[in-house]
Amino acid sequence: MQFSLWLALAGAGVLVSFTPGAGAINTMSNSLNAGFRRSIWGILGQQAALVVHVLIVALGVGVLVASSPVAFNVIRYAGAAYLVYLGIRQFLSKPTAQQEQAAALRNEPTWSIFRRGFWVNLLNPKAIVFFLAFTPQFIRPDQPLFTQYAVLTATIVAIDILVMWFFFAAAARSFQRFTSTEQGQTVLSRVFGVLFVGVGILLALIH
Protein backbone atom coordinates (compact mmCIF):
# COMPACT_ATOMS: atom_id res chain seq x y z
CA MET A 1 0.00 0.00 0.00
CA GLN A 2 1.37 3.40 -1.01
CA PHE A 3 2.18 5.72 1.88
CA SER A 4 -0.18 8.44 0.62
CA LEU A 5 -3.00 5.90 0.42
CA TRP A 6 -2.17 4.65 3.91
CA LEU A 7 -2.32 8.21 5.26
CA ALA A 8 -5.80 8.56 3.76
CA LEU A 9 -6.75 5.24 5.35
CA ALA A 10 -5.42 6.37 8.74
CA GLY A 11 -7.31 9.65 8.52
CA ALA A 12 -10.55 7.88 7.65
CA GLY A 13 -9.95 5.40 10.47
CA VAL A 14 -9.58 8.20 13.01
CA LEU A 15 -12.84 9.80 11.90
CA VAL A 16 -14.67 6.48 12.06
CA SER A 17 -13.32 5.67 15.54
CA PHE A 18 -14.25 9.08 16.96
CA THR A 19 -17.82 8.71 15.68
CA PRO A 20 -19.95 7.87 18.77
CA GLY A 21 -21.70 4.54 18.56
CA ALA A 22 -22.40 1.31 20.39
CA GLY A 23 -18.68 0.55 20.74
CA ALA A 24 -17.94 3.90 22.36
CA ILE A 25 -20.87 3.56 24.76
CA ASN A 26 -19.82 0.03 25.68
CA THR A 27 -16.25 1.19 26.28
CA MET A 28 -17.31 4.04 28.56
CA SER A 29 -19.68 1.74 30.44
CA ASN A 30 -16.90 -0.84 30.97
CA SER A 31 -14.48 1.85 32.11
CA LEU A 32 -16.97 3.05 34.72
CA ASN A 33 -18.03 -0.37 35.94
CA ALA A 34 -14.81 -2.38 35.67
CA GLY A 35 -12.15 0.33 35.65
CA PHE A 36 -9.96 1.95 33.02
CA ARG A 37 -7.41 -0.87 32.78
CA ARG A 38 -9.95 -3.69 32.56
CA SER A 39 -11.97 -1.84 29.92
CA ILE A 40 -9.27 -2.86 27.43
CA TRP A 41 -10.79 -6.35 27.35
CA GLY A 42 -14.06 -5.00 26.01
CA ILE A 43 -12.13 -2.96 23.44
CA LEU A 44 -10.22 -6.07 22.35
CA GLY A 45 -13.52 -7.91 21.99
CA GLN A 46 -14.77 -5.14 19.74
CA GLN A 47 -11.61 -5.41 17.64
CA ALA A 48 -12.07 -9.16 17.29
CA ALA A 49 -15.52 -8.49 15.84
CA LEU A 50 -14.04 -5.85 13.53
CA VAL A 51 -11.56 -8.41 12.20
CA VAL A 52 -14.47 -10.79 11.56
CA HIS A 53 -16.27 -8.06 9.63
CA VAL A 54 -13.23 -7.44 7.44
CA LEU A 55 -12.86 -11.17 6.83
CA ILE A 56 -16.52 -11.40 5.85
CA VAL A 57 -16.08 -8.58 3.35
CA ALA A 58 -12.80 -9.99 2.06
CA LEU A 59 -14.38 -13.38 1.48
CA GLY A 60 -17.31 -11.85 -0.37
CA VAL A 61 -19.95 -12.82 2.18
CA GLY A 62 -20.60 -9.14 2.74
CA VAL A 63 -22.02 -8.94 -0.77
CA LEU A 64 -24.51 -11.66 0.10
CA VAL A 65 -25.57 -9.96 3.34
CA ALA A 66 -25.88 -6.57 1.65
CA SER A 67 -27.94 -7.99 -1.22
CA SER A 68 -30.20 -10.19 0.92
CA PRO A 69 -32.84 -8.17 2.80
CA VAL A 70 -33.76 -11.20 4.89
CA ALA A 71 -30.21 -11.93 6.05
CA PHE A 72 -29.53 -8.25 6.63
CA ASN A 73 -32.69 -7.74 8.68
CA VAL A 74 -32.19 -10.88 10.77
CA ILE A 75 -28.69 -9.78 11.81
CA ARG A 76 -29.76 -6.15 12.19
CA TYR A 77 -32.67 -6.92 14.51
CA ALA A 78 -30.58 -9.40 16.49
CA GLY A 79 -27.98 -6.70 17.06
CA ALA A 80 -30.63 -4.15 18.01
CA ALA A 81 -32.24 -6.59 20.43
CA TYR A 82 -28.91 -7.33 22.10
CA LEU A 83 -28.17 -3.64 22.62
CA VAL A 84 -31.66 -3.04 24.03
CA TYR A 85 -31.15 -6.02 26.36
CA LEU A 86 -27.86 -4.57 27.60
CA GLY A 87 -29.53 -1.20 28.08
CA ILE A 88 -32.46 -2.57 30.08
CA ARG A 89 -30.13 -4.63 32.27
CA GLN A 90 -27.96 -1.58 32.88
CA PHE A 91 -31.00 0.63 33.57
CA LEU A 92 -32.46 -1.79 36.12
CA SER A 93 -29.18 -2.59 37.87
CA LYS A 94 -29.19 -1.72 41.57
CA PRO A 95 -26.47 0.44 43.13
CA THR A 96 -23.96 -1.31 45.37
CA ALA A 97 -21.63 -0.10 48.06
CA GLN A 98 -18.11 0.71 46.89
CA GLN A 99 -16.63 -2.20 48.79
CA GLU A 100 -19.15 -4.66 47.36
CA GLN A 101 -18.70 -3.24 43.88
CA ALA A 102 -14.93 -3.51 44.06
CA ALA A 103 -15.15 -7.12 45.20
CA ALA A 104 -17.58 -7.99 42.43
CA LEU A 105 -15.36 -6.40 39.79
CA ARG A 106 -12.31 -8.29 41.04
CA ASN A 107 -14.21 -11.56 40.58
CA GLU A 108 -15.74 -10.66 37.21
CA PRO A 109 -14.13 -12.75 34.46
CA THR A 110 -12.34 -10.70 31.83
CA TRP A 111 -13.85 -13.08 29.30
CA SER A 112 -17.33 -11.68 29.99
CA ILE A 113 -16.10 -8.15 29.28
CA PHE A 114 -14.39 -9.36 26.10
CA ARG A 115 -17.46 -11.31 24.99
CA ARG A 116 -19.81 -8.36 25.49
CA GLY A 117 -17.59 -6.12 23.38
CA PHE A 118 -17.38 -8.80 20.71
CA TRP A 119 -21.14 -9.22 20.38
CA VAL A 120 -21.85 -5.48 20.51
CA ASN A 121 -19.72 -4.97 17.39
CA LEU A 122 -20.41 -8.28 15.65
CA LEU A 123 -24.20 -7.93 15.73
CA ASN A 124 -24.07 -4.78 13.67
CA PRO A 125 -24.62 -5.61 9.98
CA LYS A 126 -24.20 -1.97 9.07
CA ALA A 127 -20.51 -2.44 9.90
CA ILE A 128 -20.33 -5.15 7.23
CA VAL A 129 -22.01 -2.88 4.69
CA PHE A 130 -19.75 -0.01 5.78
CA PHE A 131 -16.59 -2.07 5.25
CA LEU A 132 -18.03 -3.33 1.97
CA ALA A 133 -18.08 0.28 0.77
CA PHE A 134 -15.01 1.39 2.72
CA THR A 135 -12.36 -1.21 1.86
CA PRO A 136 -12.47 -0.95 -1.97
CA GLN A 137 -11.28 2.65 -1.65
CA PHE A 138 -7.96 1.39 -0.27
CA ILE A 139 -7.54 -1.94 -2.05
CA ARG A 140 -5.88 -2.33 -5.45
CA PRO A 141 -6.97 -5.55 -7.20
CA ASP A 142 -3.72 -5.70 -9.19
CA GLN A 143 -1.67 -5.96 -5.97
CA PRO A 144 -1.44 -8.86 -3.47
CA LEU A 145 -4.76 -8.77 -1.63
CA PHE A 146 -3.69 -10.51 1.56
CA THR A 147 -1.01 -7.92 2.34
CA GLN A 148 -3.37 -5.04 1.62
CA TYR A 149 -6.14 -6.42 3.81
CA ALA A 150 -3.59 -7.12 6.56
CA VAL A 151 -2.35 -3.50 6.46
CA LEU A 152 -5.92 -2.15 6.38
CA THR A 153 -7.06 -4.32 9.29
CA ALA A 154 -3.99 -3.62 11.43
CA THR A 155 -4.32 0.12 10.85
CA ILE A 156 -8.02 0.30 11.67
CA VAL A 157 -7.66 -1.94 14.74
CA ALA A 158 -4.67 0.00 16.12
CA ILE A 159 -6.42 3.36 15.67
CA ASP A 160 -9.65 2.11 17.21
CA ILE A 161 -7.86 0.70 20.27
CA LEU A 162 -6.07 4.00 20.87
CA VAL A 163 -9.22 6.09 20.43
CA MET A 164 -11.45 3.79 22.50
CA TRP A 165 -9.02 3.36 25.39
CA PHE A 166 -7.34 6.75 25.62
CA PHE A 167 -10.34 8.87 24.68
CA PHE A 168 -13.66 7.18 25.48
CA ALA A 169 -12.46 4.99 28.37
CA ALA A 170 -10.30 7.79 29.78
CA ALA A 171 -13.14 10.30 29.47
CA ALA A 172 -15.36 7.98 31.48
CA ARG A 173 -12.92 8.20 34.38
CA SER A 174 -14.01 11.79 34.99
CA PHE A 175 -17.39 10.36 36.02
CA GLN A 176 -15.81 7.95 38.49
CA ARG A 177 -16.59 10.19 41.48
CA PHE A 178 -20.32 9.70 40.86
CA THR A 179 -20.00 5.96 41.48
CA SER A 180 -19.04 6.55 45.12
CA THR A 181 -22.71 7.18 46.05
CA GLU A 182 -25.80 5.10 45.42
CA GLN A 183 -27.55 8.08 43.81
CA GLY A 184 -24.63 8.65 41.45
CA GLN A 185 -24.52 4.97 40.50
CA THR A 186 -28.25 4.99 39.79
CA VAL A 187 -28.00 8.08 37.58
CA LEU A 188 -25.06 6.70 35.57
CA SER A 189 -26.68 3.29 35.18
CA ARG A 190 -29.85 4.87 33.84
CA VAL A 191 -27.96 7.23 31.52
CA PHE A 192 -25.92 4.43 29.95
CA GLY A 193 -28.96 2.17 29.92
CA VAL A 194 -30.91 4.75 27.92
CA LEU A 195 -27.94 5.25 25.57
CA PHE A 196 -27.69 1.51 24.88
CA VAL A 197 -31.43 1.26 24.23
CA GLY A 198 -31.32 4.37 22.03
CA VAL A 199 -28.52 3.00 19.89
CA GLY A 200 -30.35 -0.32 19.59
CA ILE A 201 -33.55 1.39 18.44
CA LEU A 202 -31.65 3.53 15.93
CA LEU A 203 -29.95 0.42 14.60
CA ALA A 204 -33.35 -1.17 14.06
CA LEU A 205 -35.05 1.88 12.51
CA ILE A 206 -32.41 3.67 10.42
CA HIS A 207 -31.72 2.20 6.99
From TrEMBL:
The UniProt keyword set, sorted, is: Cell membrane, Membrane, Transmembrane, Transmembrane helix
Transmembrane residues, as ranges? Answer: 48-66, 118-139, 151-175, 187-206
Domain of life of the organism encoding this protein: Bacteria
Q: Which InterPro entries match?
A: LeuE-type (IPR001123)
- Coiled coil (UniProt feature): none
Signal peptide extent: none
Localization of this protein: Cell membrane
Major localization listed first in the record, in broad terms: membrane
The UniProt entry, under PANTHER family, shows:
ARGININE EXPORTER PROTEIN ARGO, HOMOSERINE_HOMOSERINE LACTONE EFFLUX PROTEIN
Protein name, please? LysE family transporter
